[in-house]
Structure prediction request, 762 residues.
Amino acid sequence: MEAAALSLAGNAVGILMPKLQESFSSIWKVRANARFIKDELESMNAFLVRNAAMGQYTDDDLEFNVWMSQVRDLAYDLEDWAEEFTWLLCQPHWHGINSCFPDVVRFTKDLVARVKIANNVHELKGRVLEVGERSKRYGLRGRTTQEPTSSLIIIGPVARMQHDPRLGAHLTDDSMLVGIDGPRNTIMNWLMEGDGFMLRVISVVGMGGLGKTTLVKKLYENQQVMKHFPRRVWITVSQTFALKVLFRDMISQLLGSQVFSAETTEGQLVQQLRDELMKLNTRYMIVLDDVWSLHAWKSFLPALPDNNRLGSRIIVTTRNLDVASFCSQESGHIYHLKPLSPENSWLLFCKKAFPRHYSICPPTFTNLSKEILAKCDGLPLAIVTIGGVLASKPLLESEWQKLHDHLGTSMMSQSHQGFDAMRQILSFSYYDLPYYLKPFFLYLAIFPEDYQIRRKRLLRRWIAEGLVNATRDMSTQEVAEWYFKELMARSMILSSIINGDTTVHSCHVHDLMLEFALNMSDKENLVSIITRQQQQQQQQHQQQPPPQQPQDVRKARHLSLHQHSLPSSIRKNKNLDCIRSLTVFSHGRVSLKNTRRMKLLRVLDLEGCDLTEDEDLEIICQFTLLRYLNLRNTSIRSLPKALAKLQNLETLDLRWTQVTEIPPQITKLHKLEYLFVGGFEQDPSGPALTCHGAEFPAEGLTALKALKTLGMVSFKTNPRELGEMTQLTKLGVKDITTPENAKAFVETLDKLSDQLRTLKVE
Prediction:
């Protein structure tokens, strides 16, 4: 995450360089210091990326983690400085265009601002030098961990663990196996029948904790399977593995105990294993449990001959759909393991939580138990773990209520050993993410539990935050799509609604993975969540507030309100420049009066909120760095003329509002790429819904050179200009009501045909 923060800061400083040169042409030292800062940021970023890829630090490396925290704070401060200067450039007095001020006042303001910027650059350069020197003083750069062995699991920046909780899967009591019959029967058929004598690969895929290892272990130990496959091998691959150790283990399982020379090479072991498998005159079954990457799978391929004509099978378990698809590309045997049904979840929960009550929930505990169970969302590992913790507590409502109220904190706390195995299993998925994907996953902590996140909304927010960079052959939109698909393939996010063309319309995060994201984002000062419950607790403890309150957002980059107003602790906070995104999840009345100090906002998402005062819209128009503005399904009726101030706006979503006319000031937003208006409303004459669009200015739309998506627009007001917007890739139009309009529309489409990919006509 520090690498991501450095990258964002480096990008911000890089963008500023030309502006610094223009504004400080006579102060060479300012530009030189900024150039030094940018170069040093790039070096730090490269170092952290390399260390993340090699797993060269751990949670128990105190000095390194303190340094990392300092690097992150420095990166945040650098980004703040760069964007504060960008914000300053947007102010009228900087360019001397505000006639309200006499020349001498404008000159004084400019001079004070420039001196402040110069001093800030000098101070930040000193901090960059100090952070760099500190890493050398304490030998932090180049520090390495020990080489991995079969008993050491290294999963990046986490504590070393001498025990893998998955290794106990075969010890699971059969009475605790619930909902396993369907998956077991399907895979059993693939094992025993399938398509005859060819070697086939069966993949079992799903998020961590679903029971993939347990399911396959029960098949592996099944008497019918043991008889059908006289030779069987089970290998746990995990994230970091020593191939020589695994190949020796595979050979020993095939042939019995073996003595290997220390000089035996990996290549010799591969050849020996391959030869032994080829010599077998009977079927074999090999399980490669917990394969994390294509690299891991390909490492085993040279040792697995494909000329066994006896119907041998290989089973791969993985959390990564891309791995499963590649392994089973010939057979097509991919089993997507799903969460337990509500009925089976309840059955398993009662077995674990009430062992002394014949697995029957006492009536007085039913409601509380179901609320706790809802947190598990069908994940067997979570149900078994939480049920076991509850079973160890006295059967008192007060005890259970306490766990219910603090379940998220308890699960993520290192001091609560009852959740160790589950916490480790969940952490594996996070720490296996490439460094560049981690901020995208942690960003999901902004959204509430069980919230359906529209894919395109999420992607546009990522882009507006500056998290996504275009490549030589991919646009930012394409890169964001790629990252989304990677998180989906790794089961870090789950699909909720699928479009007709099989693309994902909306997704969600499993409750427990969301708890993990919240915990990690809190450590990274990334997301601050304010809920109605937290605000009520704060009001009850105003005399003695808790030592660490979630409402402290002095460093958080993203503020998410799961209520209708800012709590008093934030309203009293004089410095909210750190906030880059404000998201409000509320259907009640929302006031923005206390957000004025969030002047560096990039993302403002108020979807579904009740905005009725013109003052709120005027406040929004003061956020001159805003790139993403979502007012979808709000109660606004019009847009103010001050809209023209939002010169950096890239996305404006006005769907399902009462805005039917777009002011001429929209044509001043030259960076606007996505403009959504219109929606459906109740037809007063009957039950049907009618579509309404919006009327745009008769002239000026062609000034929006960056616009890619536009809709719904009333065609009758803009037929000529629409035809000149040849960069559009998506268009929605209505009011093609006359033969003349229809003819003009056909001519317009002909002009747009080169780039237009999606057309919607109402």
User: Anything to note?
Assistant: Residues 96-101, 142-163, 542-551 have pLDDT under 50 and may be disordered. The first strand starts at residue 200 and ends at 205. The CA atoms of residues 177 and 731 lie 52 Å apart. The chain has five domains: 2-137, 165-336, 342-424, 433-512, 660-762.
